[in-house]
Amino acid sequence: MTDSDLDLVYTTLCKTLTNEGEPQAPLYLARLAMLCLTELDDPQRALSLIEAARLPAATAVTA
Amino acid sequence: MNRPFKPYPFSPRRHEGVVPPLVDGCDPLRRPVAIVGGGPVGMTLALALARQGVRSVLIEADDSVCTGSRAICISRRSLEIFKRLGVVQGFLQKGLPWAGGRSFYRDAEVFRFAMHHDDEQSLPPMINIAQYQIEQLLLDEVERHADLIEVRWQTRVTGLEQGPAQDSRGEPVRAAGATLALRTGNTAWRMHADWVVACDGGRSTIREALGLKLTGTTYEGRYVIVDIDLNSTRATERLAYFDPPSNPGSTVLVHKQPDNVWRIDYQLRDDEDPEAAVKPENVLPRVQSVLDSMGETGEWSPIWITVYKANALTLERYRHGRVLFAGDAAHLVPIFGVRGANSGIDDADNLGWKLACVVNGVASPHLLDSYSDERVFAARENLSYGMKSTEFMAPPSFAFTLMREAVLGLAGRHAAVRALINPRQTHAIAYTRSPLNEAAADPAGSFSRGPAPGAVLPECRLKRMDNGSSVDIHLTDLLEPCFTALRFGAHADPAQEHAWQELQATLTRQGIPFKAITLAADKTSQAARPTVLDHAGRLHDMFDATPGTVYLIRPDGHVLARWRDGSAADTQRAISAALTI
């Protein structure tokens, strides 16, 4: 992805998430995560991304 | 916290408001161009017009250059414009050059950016300089052109009427124009002008007088902007702190300015009252904690506090009959990415040569529609970058806030997301869809690289041949406010040389500013009297140029046309097509 591709994807995701609404955000992001992980078709990569996305213990999102 | 305020280290000169001799409340002298607003945009335009020998009057409501915290970042592109106008030296002497910056999330550095800078450059990617200094440097030059630029201080516009002017028998005459209603002190008076350019800022009186509205997006997120006096040897760079320990939940930006002035911007939380937020008792402790976290222990004083809300707005068109709009009067871009003053200076540069050609009678007024087309296009590009920066710096919804937290948290270990933190600083916009490009089109696909029509030129080191010896110069040193034909390695052909000399003579006679420059890749080439040596061959390479290639550059430094094998006749046709569009 080029920088502008990344920009487009990021902004589209933010706007879509805004439209889904805050209460639905975790479910929407969970669905997106499942789609991305299955699209990978690589269990080792998928497992390492699941690990990489973990939050440092002290900085859990409170939103 | 009790900390007395200091003034800015600058004392503006005050100027009298003087009304010219009037006949029936009207200045009998009709002006070719009246510029409303004596800020950076209005003064740049007046200087650009003066360079083409066109008179203008600058109408300024205040009695001095601006005060307060305004623009502080001037881009390389703006410096190139100032260089062509002959004022860049003061900016380089006063401004603090910088080339990049760092972003921090909590207490870790997560992103570093560098603006394009290499050995070919003659100008820094950016300088920091206060707007009062920008205006003073431009005003000094304006005053050196007092024969062509008249400044009317303390003069407000109270109304504007457009319409065909009438002759003494009441018959409409061909030259339409506009009449400005003005007030200087207690005197109300009128002035007729062929053209009026509104450079009167975000709250433009002219825009209101014509009933025009800016459209686009207004953001809710607010930033407090604080200028302080602090003596520090810290390097000049852009510093961004997201959710710093000193101001949890906030975003803080820090910029160094000349004369020990520092700009600190921080975002207000949605639940903070903006009126209370700018009170010193609320601002000073937050500034202190920012300085503490940066390790800045020196004595400091507040100078100025204001609150800012991002807008991304523009007019649909910048030409309305005899009235043109430039700068904040035409568009409001968010501060993030520093496109405000810089895009206004570009407006003035684009409009300057076109309006001069129209006033001098060498171009049709339709050329001014291309000003609107090109600069509305540029504003939309600037707005799109500015909105992306704003969405990151002042997230407009829970989703942007949440996603930003994710990106910042990942950026330390995952390089792939870092580009999203890039502040997307201003850059010159290529007029890829300009009507002028089409008018002067080159055969498609004949170049594999190099600036296409509508683009600006990259910088390059060159040598000027001067009586057998060579002097180090840069490509931007060759650009003046005129059409410039860059002739690459042209073979010595007496007939062609004669045609180029004829072209120069013809255009000079017609009052069209033009010069041709012959560039050769090496001294021993067969080039016809090379005036400039591309000793390393870099410019030839960057421009995909071969012997016979011609690049025709507009007076604002954008490419008008290029030919693999160009001639004086091609050049003449392209200039003529642009001016009679």
Walk me through what this model shows.
- The complex is a heterodimer of chains A (63) and B (581).
- By secondary structure, chain A is mainly α.
- Chain A is 70% helix and 0% strand.
- Chain A has 3 helices and no strands.
- Chain A has helices at 3-20, 25-40, 43-52.
- The longest helix of chain A is centred in the first third of the chain and has 18 residues, at 3-20.
- Chain A is globular, with a radius of gyration of 14 Å.
- Chain A starts with a helix and ends in an 11-residue tail after the last helix.
- The relative contact order of chain A is 0.07.
- Chain B has 581 residues and is α+β, with helices and mostly antiparallel strands.
- Among the domains of chain B are: 30-94 and 128-162 and 174-214 and 312-385, FAD/NAD(P)-binding domain, CATH 3.50.50; 435-579, Glutaredoxin (3-Layer(aba) Sandwich).
- Chain B is built from 14 helices and 26 strands.
- Chain B has helices at residues 40-51, 76-84, 88-94, 131-144, 205-209, 274-277, 280-294, 340-359, 367-393, 398-411, 435-439, 494-510, 538-542, 568-579, and strands spanning 26-36, 56-59, 73-75, 96-98, 100-105, 108-114, 126-128, 149-152, 155-166, 172-184, 187-198, 215-230, 238-242, 251-257, 261-267, 300-314, 319-320, 323-325, 331-332, 461-466, 469-474, 483-488, 514-520, 532-533, 550-553, 559-563.
- In chain B, the strands form 4 sheets. In chain B, strands 1, 2, 8, 9, 10, 11, 17 and 18 form an 8-stranded mixed β-sheet that branches. In chain B, strands 6-5-13-14-15-12-16-19 form an 8-stranded mixed β-sheet, with helices on both faces. A 7-stranded mixed β-sheet of chain B has the order 21-20-24-23-22-25-26.
- In chain B, helix 1 (40-51) runs parallel beside helix 4 (131-144), helix 1 packs parallel to helix 8 (340-359) and helix 8 (340-359) runs antiparallel to helix 9 (367-393).
- The longest helix of chain B is centred in the middle third of the chain and has 27 residues, at 367-393.
- Classes of the chains: A mainly alpha (63), B alpha+beta (581).
- The interface between A and B is medium-sized, with 20 and 21 residues.
